[in-house]
Amino acid sequence: MALTTTAHTKVKTFFKNMVKEGRYIIGGVTKTTPIFRVLQEGDQITVYLYLNDSVAGSITKFQLIDVDGDVFDDQPDSVSKKDINGVLVAFRYSLKKL
């Protein structure tokens, strides 16, 4: 049995509303950051985090945190961020109806 178009749309809306904030680990310390933007284009949902030029150091992980405070997505990384520019991080998901 397949999802209806209405159900598929509701699942995408539910998915977008599940993410509450971002986290990143810099210099071994966990920091939170607000969601910068959520963009939906068809079946693709992209959640953006933006770290401005006030953040500097070695970043080893980016995470999305859900409305219950649990880790929704966890992406190890290795970014050496300087304080002269920002960094835009994208988490991209595809929710296709098969």
Brief rundown of the structure:
The protein has 98 residues and is mainly β. It is built from one helix and six strands; from the N terminus they run H-E-E-E-E-E-E. The chain has one helix at 5-18, and strands at 19-26, 29-41, 44-51, 57-66, 71-81, 87-94.
Radius of gyration: 15 Å
- Strand count, sense and closure of the main sheet? 6 strands, antiparallel
Strand content: over 45%
- Count of structural domains: 1
- Residue windows where pLDDT falls under 50 for at least 5 positions: none
SS elements, strand count: 6
Q: Helix count, per DSSP? A: 1
Kindly describe this structure:
This protein has one helix spanning 5-18, and strands at 19-26, 29-41, 44-51, 57-66, 71-81, 87-94. It contains one helix and six strands, in the order αββββββ. By secondary structure, it is mainly beta. It is 14% helix and 59% strand. The protein has a six-stranded antiparallel β-sheet. It starts with a helix and ends with a strand. It has one domain (5-94). Strand 1 and strand 2 (29-41) form a beta hairpin. It is elongated and about 50 Å long.
Question: Which tags fit this structure?
Answer:
98 residues, mainly beta, six-stranded antiparallel β-sheet
Write the topology of this structure.
Blueprint: H1 5-18, E1 19-26, E2 29-41, E3 44-51, E4 57-66, E5 71-81, E6 87-94
Antiparallel strand pairs: 1-2, 1-4, 2-3, 3-6, 4-5
